Amino acid sequence: MGILRLGHVDITVPDLDLATAYYTEVMGMSETARTADRVFFKCWDEQDHHSLAVRYDPRVGIDRISFKVTDDEDLATLEQRVERYGYRVSRIHRGEEIGQGESIRFETPSGHKMELVREVERLGSDVPTVDPAPRPPGGIGRAIAPPRMDHVLVTAEEVPEATRFYMDVLGFRLTEQLLDGEGRQIGTWMERSHSPHDLAVVSGPNGGLHHFAYWLDDWTEVRDAADILAYNAIQIDVGPTRHGITRGATIYFFDPMGTRNEVFTGGYRPDPDFPTITWTEENAGKAIFYYEGELNERFMKVHT
Amino acid sequence: MGILRLGHVDITVPDLDLATAYYTEVMGMSETARTADRVFFKCWDEQDHHSLAVRYDPRVGIDRISFKVTDDEDLATLEQRVERYGYRVSRIHRGEEIGQGESIRFETPSGHKMELVREVERLGSDVPTVDPAPRPPGGIGRAIAPPRMDHVLVTAEEVPEATRFYMDVLGFRLTEQLLDGEGRQIGTWMERSHSPHDLAVVSGPNGGLHHFAYWLDDWTEVRDAADILAYNAIQIDVGPTRHGITRGATIYFFDPMGTRNEVFTGGYRPDPDFPTITWTEENAGKAIFYYEGELNERFMKVHT
Amino acid sequence: MGILRLGHVDITVPDLDLATAYYTEVMGMSETARTADRVFFKCWDEQDHHSLAVRYDPRVGIDRISFKVTDDEDLATLEQRVERYGYRVSRIHRGEEIGQGESIRFETPSGHKMELVREVERLGSDVPTVDPAPRPPGGIGRAIAPPRMDHVLVTAEEVPEATRFYMDVLGFRLTEQLLDGEGRQIGTWMERSHSPHDLAVVSGPNGGLHHFAYWLDDWTEVRDAADILAYNAIQIDVGPTRHGITRGATIYFFDPMGTRNEVFTGGYRPDPDFPTITWTEENAGKAIFYYEGELNERFMKVHT
Amino acid sequence: MGILRLGHVDITVPDLDLATAYYTEVMGMSETARTADRVFFKCWDEQDHHSLAVRYDPRVGIDRISFKVTDDEDLATLEQRVERYGYRVSRIHRGEEIGQGESIRFETPSGHKMELVREVERLGSDVPTVDPAPRPPGGIGRAIAPPRMDHVLVTAEEVPEATRFYMDVLGFRLTEQLLDGEGRQIGTWMERSHSPHDLAVVSGPNGGLHHFAYWLDDWTEVRDAADILAYNAIQIDVGPTRHGITRGATIYFFDPMGTRNEVFTGGYRPDPDFPTITWTEENAGKAIFYYEGELNERFMKVHT
Predict the structure, then answer these.
(1) Which end of chain A has a smaller Cβ tally under 10 Å, C or N?
(2) Domain-by-domain residue ranges, chain A?
(3) Which CATH class is domain A3-117?
(4) Which of C139, C218, C231 sits opposite A142 (nearest CB)?
(5) pLDDT tens-digit profile of C93-110?
(6) D231 is a catalytic site residue
């Protein structure tokens, strides 16, 4: 099976308490572990130990993006492929990292530190596995409380090269692409989990994180998220609006330290026989923001 | 009872065919009458002859705003009040104007041509009055198709004076107001129909129309409207978003000739004992656009 | 203006603690006052002291239905009209009843104890009147939390006679009626607040309460209400479904003591010139439950 | 990869014209091919030639359930596994069957004729693959128009045995199961497409079809579907309601010939590491219909 889905995103924040307050009280994640300089969080319907880790650092940035892999055999196969491609791989074993066991780490052509994790501590969802309610009882209250993390979008100087690596080496499938006037990829959307995207790459500096995104269940939850963000004076970047690419509904916003978050819903359910959708440069505005039909400066320039 | 609701808005357009195409095929109104230089439209759940009239003129503008009045006695009372206030009133009788009978016309302190109409031709809703379906059968298709017109927002140099006229003379009730630093009204929202507003006034030149608005039934219909607008390459001004004032959800957009339209839903249901809500200038951004928290230049400057 | 809206419903319950637990923790109303044998509740967006009062009694039943009236003049006028119709009216003055002042009480031809209340203690909504958020901050949580009470449906042996009283004496306007094969009213829906109904009457014993209803803002909130009801093991009577009459979306359910509640949304916004909609007996099923097209026994038989 | 998703369902109908009218005008599928005794249909967002085929037969019934397989190698592997399990497999080649090429057919332990299809004619979605709109332009109108087929539920005398076959031989993964008092499976829900279920089996006669289901995008579309069904006098079996199992929202209804259809939305997105959810018999009512908490006779007894 190879890679299953986005596992967790590790970012750096200059204020652990502020980050914890925001990711629990506004986003509605649960804190699942804490050390002197790190805090771990999960969404209510996630089984795994965490889908977000924040580490103290004076600079806002990204440490690592981690994808979940099915089994040891797949991990070993992917390890070989990455090494054969020419990148050095390091192994993490059980006990070396909080909440997870056997994993590999490497850098990618887009300059991102990536991790494939085979074994994670399973904490279970907030609903039981016997006779469960469809939602967690009593308590989400007025936080956004998405059921799970959805995808990540990174920047790369060479989008085609980065995309080739993610497809040929890591097995991602291309759902959509944005081409410039010469037919060269300036944005690519790739999936492993039969959703419109688990990983996307757009033109920009190597190693950059544009945003990570949470799943919401429908357009009304997107509005509810906007209400909560506005009530908490969180800066909304763009939205509520719809993407042309993925068809999804979205809000972009910044956590109080400056990392861009997204809430996302909708879109199709692509199987591996899904035909890639292509967007032309003259429709780039609609491709990204279908209602506005244009990109704002901040959305294009700001990343961490 | 006095004034019941917004009756119809009469605007000028430089292209009757384009206006007709847009208001029927994109907005989904029905054309109910046509002369050499005018076309009349109604929404599917409206009983009256028309809620929008367009007249050919090389310049985009507004002819008149018309409110519906209960009966002859109320019309006469309101006529006297307007005259006593010092404005000249003219009478329109049955046969003089398409789709309507006994009416009065006058200019207001905000420089708007206003009409109170007592008698209108009743065409009936698109659903019957015996054993009706909850929506019109087979045919709204991919137009927005709001059930009815909702409100109008005009500009005035002297908002407090204009508001006083609308309240004291015409009987509007103040649901919300936006005050500047000196406590002076720079925007007022008034109702007669037990909805958040039938008429609103904001600072600007006398005689200006900021927008007229259609009602939609929920936030999902607002998204559907945005899909249709974007598909038809209609310029969206702002939204989908939420107002602080009225709590309503909204999209502002321009018809192809340049008149601003709105689709609107939500909000409370104020009875006459509703306590006026006040917004302070430092929260003006949130008051107008609750998610963005700020006003864009175009929204502030463009009117017809 | 006369009657503005449904003011409050007073019911009897055999267990005050259970009633309080249900109406606060499941329905999400606030408790606003309490005596030895009574508890008072309001919804979050209501200004008035209470919209529901429960009184201890070994038998589940209804004490009184109260409508809010604009001013003293209107109260006096309505008092005269009721007396002239032949019903004895008693006056309640400030200090005699919790949360309200000047009021009149009388029995109606349908055998209901009715009250018109002019003066009520105003507690205000859970959102402020200056720079308010569109919803109450932090805390509705997993209760249904409707913004306000909406309407009441009662039973009467003689629907036409009861309807005539409510229309001619109290000024209600008929929005919809269900006629039997002989064209006789077996159900009537009437409004004062420019909503599809504030008061409805269906065939049944005199003095019976079929249900009272809370307003919800959209169909997604109706689903959320169903989730909460099911999670709390509250017996759902019918729904989520849609009414043909009023077009509204609905769930009927029973409070744990046996009084039928409803959550309701949607429908049109009738002004006084709204043409009455008529339903024929052969479409009675669709009229009441548009999706099912038939009435269940329990819905027809059970009232309090 | 093995099986990707439900490919198509082939049913028999006693009236081809009525079936065509219903599946195009009420369900909103497109007719993609027709012979003397068969008609083929697809949903607007499906790429493949058809997802439903109807064949004339005086009796309403099911011909075959077809799943889509990735490639020839997978088809050959699955063919061997089915044969090794003791079932005879027949091959269909290109040109032998409308709209599809290389395929295998066999009977299953639950008495169903099943097909795995590797090659299908690709007609493409109603939206293009270059710069597409998020929905098909102008024309869905007032049909339900689901984007795609979702899953199928069949009956089997021996649910555990049938489930074992589907899991061990065909590679389905168990997302949920309903156990009787002795811990024996009386219902199982299985997936291949990372959705809550592509195939489900409940106790009943071998070879029976309980229903096939279409995907809808949200709860508001479920209501819209109910409006359309009721308007067209289609018999609704149960719903709108929610399932405990899958968490999905649903309506069951019958096509005019008697085959049960479902519209379905929501639910989680299970990866292969999803922990199976178990429902106990005492909660069987809630498991199937979360709001009603009980099963109706018709739902339990009627299948085709």
Answers:
(1) N
(2) 3-117, 148-301
(3) alpha beta
(4) C139
(5) 999 999 999 999 999 999
(6) no
Task: Tell me the three state secondary structure of residue B48.
Answer: strand
Tell me the C-alpha distance between C126 and C11, whole Å.
24
Q: Nearest CA to CA, how far is C33 from chain B (Å)? A: 22
| Domain B3-117 shares a fold with domain B148-301 | yes
* Minimal Cβ distance to C141: which of A139, A227, A230: A139
Indicate which of B291, B292, B297 best probes the interface with A, i.e. most A CBs within 10 Å of its own CB: B291
CATH H superfamily, domain C148-301: 2,3-Dihydroxybiphenyl 1,2-Dioxygenase, domain 1 (3.10.180.10)
Categorize the per-residue pLDDT at D135 as very low, low, confident or very high, splitting at 50, 70 and 90. Answer: confident
**C-beta atoms of A242 and B227 within 8 A:** yes
Write out residues in chain B with pLDDT < 50, as ranges: none
Chains that touch D (3 or more CB pairs under 8 A): A, B, C
CB proximity under 8 Å: B 227-286 to A: 227, 229-230, 233, 236, 239-242, 249, 251, 286
Buried b (16+ CB within 10 A) or exposed e, C230-246: bbbebbbbbbbbbbbbb
Q: Is the pLDDT of residue A298 over 90?
A: no
**pLDDT tens-digit readout, B57-113:** 999 999 999 999 999 999 999 999 999 999 999 999 999 999 999 999 999 999 999
Q: pTM of the predicted model, to two decimals?
A: 0.93
